[in-house]
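Researcher: I've been going back and forth with a colleague about how Electron transfer flavoprotein alpha-subunit might be arranged in three dimensions. Neither of us has a model we trust, so I'd like an independent prediction. The organism is Thermomicrobium roseum, in case that matters for your notes. Sequence below.
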Amino acid sequence: MAQRIAVLVEHLDGEPTDVTYELLGVARRMADEDGAMVDAVLLGSEVRQLSERLPADRVTILDHPSLRYLAPEAAARALAALLADAPPKLTLVPNTSLGMDIAAWVAARLGWPLVSYCRALESRDGQWIATAQLFGGKILADVALGDEPAIIGALAGAFSQDAASPGPPGTIEQVPAPAELEQLRSRVIALERPEAADVDITRAEKIVAVGRGIESKDNLELAEQLAQALGAVLAASRPLVDAGWLPRSRQVGKSGLKVKPKLYVALGISGAPEHLEGMKDAELIIAINKDPKAPIFTVADYGAVADLFEVAEALLERLEG
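Model: Here is an independent structure prediction for Electron transfer flavoprotein alpha-subunit. You can compare it with whatever you and your colleague have in mind.
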């Protein structure tokens, strides 16, 4: 059997998530270079119809009621059993709130190395190198991948979907569920969704987002005024939402919402990887931050190393003048 690169399919509401296609894309690139095959691992309950939209050489389906919501314990046990039975060269798992639990559990169970927060995979001198982010992206670590099986926790939004647009797979194979899925210590009873938000920032064409640099809740008024003058909506990074300054429906980032507006103005946002994942695909990004080394500048089209209050007030004066 040819070498395999396995990709864990993340899905919600009957649809594969964007990061699934990103990982299938990078897996295809790696497989083509190494003469390997891409195996999309689809765990769930009554999910066979999803396999028809997964562009892989093979889709391996493990169907069981306990996997309905991809509960971490059930999904990790199922994935570990599959990988142990036929170890692939690499296993790509989304580094999302769901995937992080699964990847760490499986790596520990199998004794395989795990590279989390992976933002790049490239071949150098015939060897695959995974680049991982540490300390919020302030340090990048290159990890050489050897011949032994390894698990990669890949950041959502780090790879392009272009190489893996939805399409039919090569073959589909359904495998029996491991017996240990009948002996789980935890189970998901229901999926509760938050109440409808006052505004859907995922549909906004213009966004003004604020971070810790705004300093206090009282200063949100200035950002709101700027947003209104631009015809934009106000959003925030996670620390402000955690502080209760804005509702969670306004949070941009991996643990919030992914946005792709035509204009994204970042006021006082340093640009942690979790935040960048949620907004880096905006058409035009303008960042204002006092720190010239802030990661937000790595994705910004225009940046100003300046006091955000001075810039915001100057913009307001120009817009309202």
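Researcher: What would you highlight for our discussion?
Model: I'd start with this: The mean pLDDT is 90. After that, consider the following. The helical segments are 18-34, 72-85, 97-110, 220-230, 238-242, 273-279, 308-320.
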